[in-house]
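[Meeting: bench + compute handoff]

Bench side (C.D.) handed over the final construct sequence. Compute side (W.E.) agreed to return the predicted structure before the next meeting so the bench team could plan truncations. Sequence as handed over:
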Amino acid sequence: MRGHRSIQISAEADFPSVRLLAAACSGVLEEWGLPAERRALLELAVVEAATNVVRHAYGGRGGRVEIEIACDGANLAVTVVDAGVPFDPTGVPSPPEPDPSDPATWPEGGMGLPIIRASCDELLYRSEGGRNLLTLRLRLAPAEAS
């Protein structure tokens, strides 16, 4: 992932587009040389974040969702942008860890934010100019940055 690179991908904020946005993001990251394991987790995180935009920010009423991907050689940032209802997920506490041996502790939902948090080194949120920006920032290992 040498040098400065960036790309924006935009689509309707609907469920069919969520998967396409995530696949496009994964394709860009593959082209830029991000290892498959990190790419897969980021792709899942984009699905979760974009699904939250469709479901919560827009309430299923439509709008646009944009994915901005930027790399400066040492860091990678994937930003999910929408113009829906603001929500700062960085203020939501992590749920308790489920006990693998006790199915009663396994969550039925609400794992989107933990998945998003697990995909990155830093999760940032800001709302500006009527747009919500959720940024997943990754520090690249030397082999990934070259």
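W.E. noted at the follow-up: The two ends are 6 Å apart (CA to CA). C.D. will use this when planning the next construct.
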